[in-house]
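Researcher: Next entry in the queue.
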Amino acid sequence: MRIIVDAMGGDHAPEAVVDGAVRAARAYGVDITLVGRQADVARELAKHDTQGLNLDIVQASEVVAMEEHTLAVKEKKDSSLVVGMRLLRQGQGDAFASAGNSGAVMAAALFNLGRIKGIDRPALGSIYPAAPNKCILLDIGANTDCKPEFLLQFAIMGTAYAERIFGVANPRVGLVSNGEEADKGSMLVRDTYKIMQAASQGDKPLLRFVGNVEGKDLARGLADVVVTDGFTGNVMVKLTEGLVAFIFGLLKDELTGGWLNKLALLLLLPGLMLMLPGLLLLLPTIRRLAKRVSWREIGGAPLLGVDGVVIIGHGRSDARAIQSMIRQAKIAAEQGLVQRIKEGIGNG
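Model: Structure for this entry, 348 residues:
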């Protein structure tokens, strides 16, 4: 298994990308191709113990910066992003991962890999961090304006992802709306409801549609795949990430802020020492909880609908997030995600 990584993509590249790649190679036993400026990548790689690891470097003289428009993908044909995507198209890797500009990654994927036959618009998916079950939300930003048939295709691709990556048999698909009733929502939502309902009927249904879901329903685990337009999805996932960070920050501030709270913690210290064995037993549970809601552990968003495995990480990714991004790419490639989407759309 070889993962092609854009070594120059992200706010902290190439340092964080190389660090994360080394960690991933060691943790998951994958071979990694780092694409970027040879001297810069080699300098970072020399800081790590790579004995026994298979990491190589492919030269790319240009970089598509985080603030650049997608037009740069056409202009910079020797950028790490374009060269890496070209390697994937040529079969020199099983997946591609980048923490670079998401619009540029999507453009490079479309230019070099093309869309899967039957898919009008690729979609970005994200594991929804506030759901009690494993749930993928899509689209989260690739398509702000959508048609009903786009959302149906998102649902089919999300179903393939939930089956192959989450291991969920017959995933439940929900459509984001402002009410559970079929006549609620915008014209887009109402029209999409009809075609999703039709697609879930018959002897060989394309998906298992459970109807409209409201924002609160995601946190109740009522669907495994949640579909919406890219504008709404992006707001939903960013708001949730912000709320998670706010809650943890608020708890920290409230527990440690003010002299009364500090005095209370001091007085509780002897009792806490007695509770130490129990707290140690709870540490694995606390770590699992932290991982479930951490964007660093999620790692990135799959770009579904292009003819190859592509994972897009957060632009602010640190080494841990890069490692998680590569893990996502490995799993998607191993599970044959692209082939499953082709089968779901009817051309596998």
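Model: The chain has two domains: 1-119+305-348, 126-295.
Researcher: Noted, moving on.
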